[in-house]
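Hello,

I think I submitted the adenosine monophosphate job twice by accident. Can you confirm which output corresponds to this input? Input:
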Amino acid sequence: MLNIALFGPPGAGKGTQSERLIAKYGLLYISTGDMLRKEIASGSDLGKEINEVTSQGHLVSDDLIMRIIRKTINSNPHAKGILFDGFPRTLSQAKLLESLIEELHTRFFGVLSLEVPRQELIERLINRGKVSGRSDDREDVILERLKEYEAKTLPVAEYFEKKGNYYPVNGTGSLDEIFERLVAQIEKHSNLQ
Ligand code: AMP
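Support: Only one job matched these inputs. Its output is below.
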């Protein structure tokens, strides 16, 4: 099984590259952000609670994230592997991911990290906001999301760097170029060949 976490700040291109990776490797896609947006769109009470947090650019609780992840895994027991997008986002989520991997008796490939300069991220997100209709793609919320990323999510990178399964990838250039770099890292560090 190939279990990967696609990592990077908001606007790094995780969603776009995820689509290509799941198609190439036949992985189950777990995007915690997409799942939260679905719950918001359903209009449920839980969705309303989630919206209050995400529309401010803050992170929702680890407990809620783990519940939605488990639900997806349980309804896809025959997956060939999982691509996590937007998870883990805190140090405690990183540890929860490791326990989940153990519990599933599988292995964790590691973290593929899309690296993009801060200014380019802000420009990409402002442009995306013009078409996405996402309430968190507004400049003030974008800056808050980047602050959350720097304070809470960057320690996750250090954590996996120390473990030796953190693989940085240049996230600038054409979509094809970026995809090729991701695939090159996977082929180099997994035993797929
Ligand atoms: P994303 O689509 O990954 O940018 O996520 C959109 C928003 O959903 C984030 O700004 C957070 O508010 C929330 N979110 C997504 N994934 C997580 C996570 N793993 N932990 C906490 N909050 C999350």
